[in-house]
Amino acid sequence: RLAPGLQLKLGALRSTYDLGWTPLREALSRLEAERLVVASHNRGYAVAPMQRGDLEDLQQARLAIELPALLASMRNGGEDWEAAVITAHYRLSRCQLSAENFSDALLDEWENRHDTFHSALIGACASQWLLRFHAQISDQMRRYHRVLNTGPAQGSTRDAMAIEHHTALMEAALERDTARAQALLEQHVQSTVTVFEAATATPS
What is the mean pLDDT of residues 145-164? Predict the structure, then answer.
């Protein structure tokens, strides 16, 4: 809810969240470790900026983590995994964003259901480290989804977030179509970079 690059004034944060100085500084240190906040010697703390290079790096990391986890789930998943994926997809399909039906609360709900869907897809992966890293990357991606959904490219963003993309990915995973699942996931991940480029392009 805070704009990228916004300077964080400790006094205002302390008043807003009713925290003492020690827990406030500890919280900011933890957020800095998660790369959600940045600190500089002379200017204090600020909300982490959003840059194309950082997003591309993040998306490469996401593919490096999510793709092997997805392929492992496709090999290992049984009926319980299939049921979880189908249920998560159904719930995501019931929460669609549009220009006529949009609010911060609805975007929160979509993000939760979207994360649940992708977590269900990789839910049969046995590697707890892959699952943990995937959760961290999802937290970072929420920042970009939030800004792009309220910026000038929000229409393009919602096209990329449409249920059809997720339906095709689900079907490929359940059919154990490795090549198609990989291609769809790569396309799905790249879509955020494409929308970010459109949102930040300088008008000619």
Answer: 64
